[in-house]
Amino acid sequence: MRFNILLHTNFSDRRIPINYQYPLSSAIYRIISKGDGEYAKFLHETGYGKKGFKLFTFSQINCPFKISGDRMELLTNELLFQVSFHLPEAMETFIKGLFLSEKVDIADSRSKVSFTVKSIERLPNLLGDSNEGEMINISTRPTSPIVAGVQNEKGYYDFLSPDNRLFTESLIHNWRSKISTCYDDATAESALLMMEVFSMKNPFKSRLITIKSGKPEETKIRGWLNLGLKITGERRFVELLLNAGTGVYSSQGMGFLESFSCDILPSTVTRT
């Protein structure tokens, strides 16, 4: 389930950190955390047994800006971004109610801009409506950097580029972890999941993002844009991937995908 969110500010000084992902993620997390109790009640009363309220990701922000050092100077008083959650369809009104008119601060130790959620609009399901158990193949591209990595002996990630054979293996491993969270380990292990990187018009482009900038926990991560991903799996698992993001650091706004084609595969496709 994904939404367009339009933010408005009355601030005349509209400089935000170029690494805005962590403060925006924190603002989203704060808003949805206020709905935890109501969400638990919803699950109990409707019989939905799946987790997912905290499985979310978001796109890069969309508005005119110019770069000034480590700041983005916004040239208008509104900005747009998309956010997605892995939630039942019946939660649409609930999510809209949580966000509408909420305050969103994008700030660090050097600057702060306060926004109000001016509007929130539900977007169509990228996969349409059909049997959740059918196998589908989709072509996607990221609208925020995809971060793929393998943990080294120190517990830190060694980040991978799209031309590394381990890139898609890492993404599939993370995908299985999300399936395990929403379903169970056995379902995740038995799921047929495939990914293939393909080139777009422009070369692969990397971006270095700083999380928790200026804090003792500061972390630098490397993500990739200008690539396509062909993804194969059961519709319910592909929908989870689109809703929750691909790769690591999804809740920090990484791995937000848009789909531009979707094909239903023959029912004879089985796990190999």
Unreliable residue stretches:
none
Task: Tell me the CATH topology of the largest domain.
Answer: Alpha-Beta Plaits
- What is the general shape? globular
The count of helical stretches stands at 6
> Class of the largest domain, according to the CATH hierarchy?
Alpha Beta
Task: List the secondary-structure elements in sequence, H or E.
Answer: EEHHEEEEHEEEEEHHEEEEHE
Could you walk me through the main structural features you see in this protein, from its secondary elements to its overall organization?
With 272 residues, the protein is an alpha+beta fold. It has 6 helices and 16 strands. The chain folds into 2 domains: 2-122, Alpha-Beta Plaits; 135-264, Alpha-Beta Plaits, CATH 3.30.70. The chain has a 5-stranded antiparallel β-sheet with strand order 3-6-1-8-7. Keywords: Antiviral defense, RNA-binding. This is CRISPR-associated endoribonuclease Cas6.
